[in-house]
Amino acid sequence: MNKFDDITTLGRGGSDLSAVALAVALKADECQIYTDVEGVFTADPRLVPEARKIDSLTFDEMLEMASRGAQVMQTRAVEVAKKFNLSLYVASAFSNKRGTMIMDEHQVIEKPVVRGVTLTEQEAKITLCNVPDQPGIAAKVFRKLGAENINVDMIVQNVSHKNTTDISFTIAKSDVKKTLRVMKSVSAQVKGEDVTADEDIAKISLIGVGMKSQSGIAFRCFQALAEQKINIEMISTSEISITCVVKKREGKRALMSLHKKFGLHKP
Prior knowledge:
single chain; Carbamate kinase; VC0802-like; 4-stranded mixed β-sheet; 4-stranded antiparallel β-sheet; 12 strands
């Protein structure tokens, strides 16, 4: 209930989170969410026709996919389900086809090296050029961003030349104007030079818990992009993901290339 005693969801459009919260409160064995898609796919089937539905995946894989552009599940809903170890089942409300089960890693029997590939084109790259290469500079930069509630994703600081360095990071496109205003102020304070914004980027992510125990994944990822003559502007990795920033015009081609390279089109 809201303050007017109206029945409502938890947050704007938070039907997923509301369902998970109710399931936790009722101590249910699992939470079933029926939506307009058949489940979670290896890639967005609108962009990659060969994409396959995934039968099961872990909470961590779903969190990575959701935060990297997959729109099947609300990130906060998956976080709550993981916290209380509540299995999620996502299926279509318009067909009887089996959906996707999202569960604890120990419950997932099959753990492919790469589970899926995602693409997002709703971010921008900000670069603060030629700032002094001194301790505390990065802290000043990101303290200001945090104070303005600007979420930062990938961060790259270039190798220092002549005691100066460039700091690049990615943000949501909706925050570009505010970020440029903040960064120009910060640049003046730390005696930096120009601040640039590049909205013509795409972010590609490979995701899979199997990466924890498999070597050579980064090489195969970079090789696939090199074969397509796609230049990588930024790279970020975690235990279960590799993310590359490329030009927006090359995003869909990169997505299809990686999907094929890792055999995600095969049963």
